[in-house]
Structure formats: structure tokens, C-alpha cells
Amino acid sequence: MAEVAAGPILTRLQGLRPRRRLASALADEGARASLWLPVCLGLGIAGYFALPQEPPPWLLLPLGAGLLALLWLGWLRPGLRAAVLALGLLGLGLFVAMLRTLAVAAPVLTEELGPRWVSGQVAEVEIVDSRPRLLLRTSQISGLPAEATPDLVRLRLLRPWPGLRAGDSVALKAVLRPPPEPAAPGAFDFARRAYFQRLGAVGYAVTAPRIEEGADGEDGARRWRVAWAALRQALGERITAALDGVPGAVAVALITGDRSAIPDAALEDMRMSGLAHLLAISGLHLGLVAGLVFFAVRTGLALIPALALRFPIKKWAAVLAAAAALVYLFLVGATIPTQRAYVMVGLALLAIVLDRQPISLRLLAAAAMLILILSPESLLSASFQMSFAAVTGLVAGYEWLSQRRQPGFQDRGLLARLGLYLGFLMLSSVIANLATAPFAIFHFNRLAVFGLFANLVAIPLTAFWIMPAALIAMLLLPFGLEAWPLAAMGMGIEFLLAVAGEIAAWQGAVIPIRTMPLWGLAAATLGGLWLCLWERPWRLLGLAGPLLGAASIALASPPDLLVSGDGNLLALRARDGALVFSSLRRDRYRRDIWLRRSGSTTARAWDRDGQAEHGLRCDALGCIFEFAPGRRLGLALTGEALEEDCRAVEVLVSLEPLRGLDCPTPSLVIDRFDLWRNGAHAVWLSGRASRVTTVRAQRGERPWVRRPEASAGSPSGGQAQR
Predict the structure, then answer these.
(1) What residue segments make up the domains of the chain, in order of their start?
(2) Residue spans of beta strands (DSSP E) within 166-205
(3) Strand intervals (E) in 348-408
(4) Does pLDDT of 608 surpass 50?
(5) How far apart, in whole angstroms, are the C-alpha atoms of residue 375 and residue 196?
(6) Which fold, 113-218?
(7) Which residues pair with 141 in a beta bridge?
(8) Buried b / exposed e across 566-604, counting CB within 10 Å, b at 16+?
(9) Backbone phi, then psi, for 16, in 5-degree steps?
(10) Contact at 8 Å (CB) between 606 and 581?
């Protein structure tokens, strides 16, 4: 079927009208058109999150009624069924996203609170840089009414506190802040993710926690979560007691999902070598656990002829493998990415029970539909995008190869089979890297060049050594015999880390790439889907999408000026194209994000480098930057510089409010009030007129966007921007 030449098909289509051409082409594809159902659903969800304002809640009722009417109309008119179904799924995506947003609504702080007494139950304990970090289910925050108290608060402690465990009720004094907004327009929105996690505040403790008597009246779901968190913490302690150092921290990450104890240097090596995905619990890990249990159970039952000849042991093994994967899911915290992975693994095992093909694009489409309906916000996450991109590319690639595979594969010798296995492993790495590259560039601004070679060693090592040893250790742990399998696991992890460190040290291991615009990612995604989901020769048209996505990086110009929302950090694009910062000592987190998004690796300060080469002149009151002949940007650091800058520059950025000062010369003015109200600013100075965008303008008026008007401590003054 796949060998049909493109010529006869195109000749037949040329004699038809456009609508009939499309209908005929879809008919040639057969049932593969159904693979686009989750794509239509996802487009509806993406449309919801792209809205500048939140739709009114009352819209849910007419929207639901309209969806039912559309489905009824499509059922009555077969000729319109495909179009109506696509429109209905677009509306369904909008509907489920709105519903989910309303369902998870919880109080969020709107301003920083000085040291306050916070009491609640410890939901999770993590170790970050040798210091505990608590996720606290709050019951009371002094000075806040109950209706304004966040459900969850994340706090850093002053020092290690060994006796603290999940489930403890504690009281401590802490400084609390709202979840941070993006560091730059278009950057990662932590506040949006926190909203869907019901995380209403972050901060740090200023006193040691005081353990109190446990709270009564907890619901069953909360007790269930706390019990698994306590088990996870206890397992981590048992693992590190038997396996210390970096291998122990990695073992804890692979078994319990807690990566907080892995040193930054090891994490960076894994990222630069393209192996960071092995540390994030995903479909690979759940698949390995389920696969190991499946084959172990099936092999064991096959050794008992009375069972193997009378009962469907393959289906029994699939059920037990699903149960083992479910236990692993709860053990690693049942986060959204792991829930998604379990859905995919569970559906594959269900297909075995129902005598269906366990891995197919239809199965993948069903998993995507289920996940998007239950958790529509996951569409925006890098883990969702990269995992589905990799699996879709792999399934489509091997589907294409299976139609061309020559007979006699089973009759080949051992060496030939080993060579084919290595070839398939290399091909899998190539496909997965190509499929996930646009998302890695968009979210992380880096491309691991030698990830193919690293994965050729790391994936077999993980599948056949590290994870089997981990599974044996967990089976023997209740009997206190976990030491030797953990030691074997540690040897495999040391080898894995050595591979990661070696490849990360290679020259050019990582290519930093500046941020891909959103439209470029959309083009690459839709083009990749077109290439993978269709079967006929017209699928090759999808290659234009990734090419356009790659071109978008060069077509989109980066900002020439970045100003943080609090005014503490500024960055200018120098004449050589590099970012130079107002300071290298403050706000390292935001500075690193700006640097990464610009495609750079080295930060420079304009108060240390030669200022002449940057076109920048500074004094104690501010700076003047000549970005083009006769065109100047003024950076007023104090109020004394405003009067002069208002007469001498085209663009003015003031870290002080203008307070009604007449400033007629600049075509663009950004003052302290603008920064406070609209967040970080990005300014483009090239072209005839300067343009600006802000974090607030890109985020819109949404439930997860904090409204500064409701906050205390706003700066005085106003804005003057034309």
C-alpha cells in the first residue's frame, strides 16, 4: 500500500474540484484521518491559553450546548461529518481547558508578606543544595483570612532538619512571595504552572520548624498522598544509606523521582550529553518497569506447563505488569508527566489483554486524547511535547520500515541480529533527537550534538543493567537484602555518569540557540504531525514545517534591551551582538534566563568591560547608549538624570517614576511605574520606530496573572509612553 506512486494519485486529483480533491485524498488515507482527533482537541486547548482574556464562566453552558448541536448535525450529515467533528473537538478543547481552570482555582498571594507564622502539614520534603525544601499544605498563615490562605506553600529551610518527614504538622515563621512571573516576555511561566498545581506561595523560613500534633479530619485522598510521600522519603534514606555520593542521588531519582540531591555538575553533564531525559521519570522508566515485570512473570509461568498450556499467561503477565507500573507511578509522586506515561504504558498492556497491537499510532492518539481531557494544561509542558513527539516519530518511523522489511529476519545469525539491534538503536536515537529538537530549542535553547552517541551507550545500560538492578533491590528491600543489587546499580550509574562527563567535555557538545518564536514551533509541530500521521506521498509536504521552524530562529530578531520588572537588572545588546548586563552580582537567576534565551553562554557587565566598544557611556546618574547614528537610548538610574534625558534621547528607561514630568522628546518612555505594573520589558531599537513588549501584555488577563493594582507598596508616579 505504501508503495503506490505519487503520479497516478496526483493525476486523478487534478481533475477534481478542490473540495473533492481533499475528500478523495482523505478517503485514500482511510482510518488514519482519526489520528488527527487529538490534534484538533489540542488546537482548541492551545487557543484557550492563547486568549488575552479569560472567557466568562457562563460561556461554559452555551459552549457545551453548541458542541452537542455540532455533533448532532455531523451525525445527520455524513458529508459534513469530518468538518463538524473537527470543529466540535476544537470547541471541546476550549471547554475542557476552561473547566479545568475553574476546577483548580485556589488562593494565590498577591504581594510579599514579611515574616509570618505558617502552620500546616508537610506534603513533601526535598533536599536542594544540602538544604530541605518543604511543600506545605497550609492550614493557617498569621494575618491572612482563611479564604485568602493558599492551599500549598513551598519553603526553603535554614539548615538540614533530619527529623522532618512527610505527614508531620509543623509551624514556622517564613517570608512568603507570590509565585514568580516570567523573567522576560515569552519565557517560562512558573506562575501558570503553580496555578494548576494549586501552589499559592513560595518563600523561605526564618525560624526552625516546630513539629506539632497531627491534624485531624484529613480526607482520604490527602492521607493517601502523604503516605506515599513518607514512603518515598524513607526509600530515599534507605537507598542513600547503602549507596552514597552522586550514584546514590541518581539512584534515588530513578527509583523515587526525587532529583533534588543530584549535584548541579552532574545534572549539567547529563544535559550537555543529551541524557537528561534518563533522570526525568517518563514513559521509558515506566515502560522498563512494566516490561521487566511482564517478561519475568511470563517466563516464570511458562516454566510451569500446567499453567502455560491451559491459561492465558501472557495476559496475566500484562495485568501484573500494569499493577507494578501503577505502584511505581505512586512511588514517584504521580506527577502529570508520570500520569501521562502510565496512560500510554497502561493502554499498551490493555491492548495485549484484548489481543490488539500494543504499540500503534491509534493507541498513541487515544492516550493523547485522554491526557488532554483530564489535564489540558499539560499541552504547554515540555515533557508532554517532547515525549509525544519522540514516541510519534518512533512509531511512525518503524511503521514505515515494517512495510519495507525483508522476510527472513528471524533466520539471521546472532551477529546479524546484534548488528540489526544496534542499527535500530541508532535509528531510534536519530528519530527521537530529530522529533524532539524543535521543543528542546524552544524550551531550553540548546541542542546536544552528540546525544546520539551518548544514548547508544546509555539506553542499553539503563534498560539491561541499571533498572533491572533497581527492580531487584526494591523486591529485596523488605527483607533488608537491598545492598548488593544497589551496589550493582551504583556501578552502572557510575559508568553512565562517566559516559555523560566524557561526552559533555567534547568540543561543541552543546550548541546554544536563541529562542525560537512561537509561530516557528507551531510550524515545526504541525509539519511533523503531517509527516508522521499520514501514509500517502503527500505526507512529504510536512517537511516544510520543520524547515520553516528552523528558519524562524534566523528570521526573528532578539530584543536590544531587557529590563526586569523590579528594575534591578538591565541588559543591552552590544554592537557585537552579545548581551551586556548592568550587574553580574545581582539576580543571577533572571540573568541566566536572559543569557540562555539570547543563545549566549558568557555574561559580560557593562560596568567592567570597555564601554566604548558597546557604544555606552555611564556616570553615577545613568547611561547613554547610541544604538544608531544620531539615535540614543537613555537609562536614568536616578531622578536627577531625568530632566536632561527627556531632552536628549529617543528612548528613555527610568528606574524612578516620572511623577508627571513633561518628557516631550522621547518617542518611548518606560518608567518605574511601568515596570511595576507590566513586569519585565523587552525593547527592539532597530527600525524606524522602537517597539516594546511586556510580560503583562503577553500573559493577558488570566487567573494565574497577578494584578499589581491589588498589591500594596506600588511606586508613586505614573507613566509617559507614546
Answers:
(1) 28-103, 113-218, 236-392+456-509, 518-555, 561-710
(2) 169-177, 199-205
(3) none
(4) no
(5) 9
(6) OB fold (Dihydrolipoamide Acetyltransferase, E2P) (2.40.50)
(7) 118
(8) ebebbbbbbeeebbbbbbbeebeebbebbbbbbbbeebb
(9) -110, 160
(10) yes
The number of C-alpha atoms within 13 Å of 38 and in the hemisphere containing its C-beta is: 23
The Cα 612–Cα 632 span in angstroms is 14
- How far apart, in whole angstroms, are the C-alpha atoms of residue 506 and residue 657? 50
329 SS3 class: helix
| 83 contacts: CB under 8 Å, gap ≥ 6 | 74
Distance between CA atoms of 297 and 317, rounded to whole angstroms? 5
Owner of C-alpha cell 511561566:
189
Q: What is the pLDDT of residues 83-132, one digit of tens each?
A: 778 888 888 899 999 999 999 999 999 889 989 999 999 888 887 777 78
Model confidence pTM above 0.70: yes
Name the H helices within 561-683.
588-597, 611-614, 642-648, 672-678
Closest alpha carbon to 134 in 104, 158, 109, 105:
158
Decide the pairing of beta strands 199-205 and 152-156.
parallel
| 121 beta partners | 137, 169
Rounded Cα–Cα distance for residues 218 and 215 (Å): 7
Per residue in 525-572, pLDDT (tens digit) is: 999 999 999 988 888 999 999 999 999 998 888 899 999 998 889 999
**CB under 8 Å, gap of 24 or more: what pairs does 699-702 form?**
699/181, 699/182, 699/189, 699/192, 700/51, 700/52, 700/53, 701/52, 701/53, 701/54, 702/51, 702/53, 702/54, 702/192
C-alpha cell at 647: 531632552
What single DSSP character describes residue 694? E
User: Three-class SS of residue 343?
Assistant: helix
Which candidate, 378, 346, 31, places its Cα nearest to that of 192? 378
Asked if 122 and 161 count as a contact pair (C-beta separation under 8 A), the reply is no
Measure the N-to-C terminal CA separation of the chain; round to a whole number of Å. Answer: 62
> 278: helix, coil or strand?
helix
3-state secondary structure of 201: strand
Q: Within 13 Å and on the Cβ side, how many CA atoms surround 484?
A: 3
List the Cα angle 601/605/606 in 5-degree steps: 130
CB 702 within 8 A of CB 54: yes
357, 351 Cβ separation under 8 angstroms:
yes
